[in-house]
Amino acid sequence: MAAPGENLRINGDRLWDSLMEMAKIGPGVAGGNNRQTLTDADADGRALFQSWCEAEGCSMGLDQLGTMFARREGTDPDALPVYVGSHLDTQPTGGKYDGVLGVLGALEIVRTLNDLGIRTRHPIVVTNWTNEEGTRFAPAMLASGVFAGVHEQAWAEDRQDAEGKRFGDELDRIGWRGAEEVGARKMHAFFELHIEQGPILEAEGKDIGVVTHGQGLSWTQVTITGKEAHTGSTPMPLRRNAGLGMARVLEKVEEIALSHAPDAVGAAGHIDIYPNSRNVIPGKAVFTVDFRSPDLSVIEDMEKRLRDEGGKIAEEMGLGIEFEKVGGFDPVEFDETCVTAVRNAAERLGYSHRDLISGAGHDACWINRVAPTAMVMCPCVDGLSHNEAEEISREWATAGADVLMHAVVETAGIVE
Questions:
Q1: N-term to C-term CA, the chain
Q2: Nearest to 48 by CA among 4, 86, 5, 103
Q3: HSE value, Cβ hemisphere, 13 Å, CA-based, for 208
Q4: Are 143 and 182 in contact (CB under 8 A)?
Q5: d(C-alpha 303, C-alpha 288), whole Å
Q6: Of all residues in the chain, what percent carry a pLDDT higher than 70?
Q7: CB-based contact 406:8 (threshold 8 Å)
Q8: Which of 10, 331, 375, 394 has the fewest CB atoms lying closer than 10 Å?
Q9: Which of 385, 379, 381 has the alpha carbon at shortest distance from 397?
Q10: Are β-strands 68-72 and 124-128 bridged in parallel, bridged antiparallel, or unpaired?
Q11: What pLDDT, in 10s, does the model give residues 279-294?
């Protein structure tokens, strides 16, 4: 496909205005957003997005899990579409850009092509995936996971929130269930623009992250059992302190992750101590170890060392220990041709860039299983995300959307 000229640029002010307009729906308490999936705010955000798409002449498709597909026709009726997008749902205390930049950046491509009267051979489909965040209905990337055949649709619809409300029921309640079979669509390629959610691009002064891989993830729930006893009257040598055992295992987690630096991480974010009383030595500790790496063999090594070395710690301390893998996915390697299109676009447009490994999960990670896929990332201030203080600049958003457009248009093929 011929590359678009370097003078082809999106309207950065219009993109920014759209981001700010969408942020008015489901406002947070501290300047961000609370537009959780399948809430009334989510429904309102979808309606605004649909109105914008239809104003640009797009037809709107909707599948049985509520994922939205706004299609701009190409000149070849037999050519598979190039899909581009992300998600509009947010964390309970989310920012204005996580996911939203990818959806509205994709819409801005359509607007710019319409402004300039540019046609593409392949159709372009702007996509809003349902329930990427997974904060209300776990797991994350739920609809794209069903689309890619990772999850069963019935299982997804049975997911419940903290109040026991079913995903399927809430989708029906807000009126955004479509008739289209999930996963029936075939894609020529998929591109996703996202904020980095990490500090690397900003720290290095780079405009663009060319995402080559997505980290794999492993969650292992560890249960350590000891013996509850009085903190004041139990001699130190007679204690079987599950909390202390957990602390020593977590030190080992740190050591294991650092041994694979710099492209591996590990920590425990979810921790429960029982009975969690000030004057009782903990009799049980339950915590989940989160290991991530772009290399599957590294993840497997970290898992094995956790079990082996955690077992030794428990044995030496007279504690019981159990391990249960409760979640995870393998590392992702994005399509070389699509990644090259992103890298070439950044170079053609004069934006500084570097290759990047995504530390978080994204819809693109699942779609990569069924279509050639790549991601574009732009910096975010201090690498902060999933926080109402999440911030990017207008210039970063514009650069990311420019690169996205060039990669998408080159893949879709300009009709001279």
A1: 11
A2: 103
A3: 27
A4: yes
A5: 12
A6: 100
A7: yes
A8: 394
A9: 379
A10: antiparallel
A11: 999 999 999 999 999 9
Residue with tokens 């915590």: 287
Angle at 287 between CA 286 and CA 288, to 5 degrees: 140
* Strand-pair category, 82-86 with 124-128: parallel
Share of the chain residues as helix, strand and coil, in percent rounded to the nearest 5? 35, 25, 40
pLDDT digits (tens, 9 = 90+) for 301-317: 999 999 999 999 999 99
HEC sequence for 225-280: ECCCEECCCCCHHHCCCHHHHHHHHHHHHHHHHHCCCCCCEEEEEEEEEECCCCCE
Kindly report the backbone phi and psi dihedral angles of residue 248, in degrees, each rounded to the nearest multiple of 5, phi listed first.
-70, -35
The pLDDT assigned to 263 comes to 84
Given the structure tokens 């997008």, which residue do they identify? 85
In this predicted structure, what is the pLDDT of residue 1?
Answer: 61
The amino acid sitting at 83 is Y
Question: What is the value of pTM for the model shown?
Answer: 0.89
Cβ count within 10 A of residue 269: 9
Closest CA to 302 of 271, 244, 272, 258: 258
CA 342 to each of CA 34, 193, 202, 211: distance values in angstroms, whole numbers, following the listed order: 31, 10, 19, 9
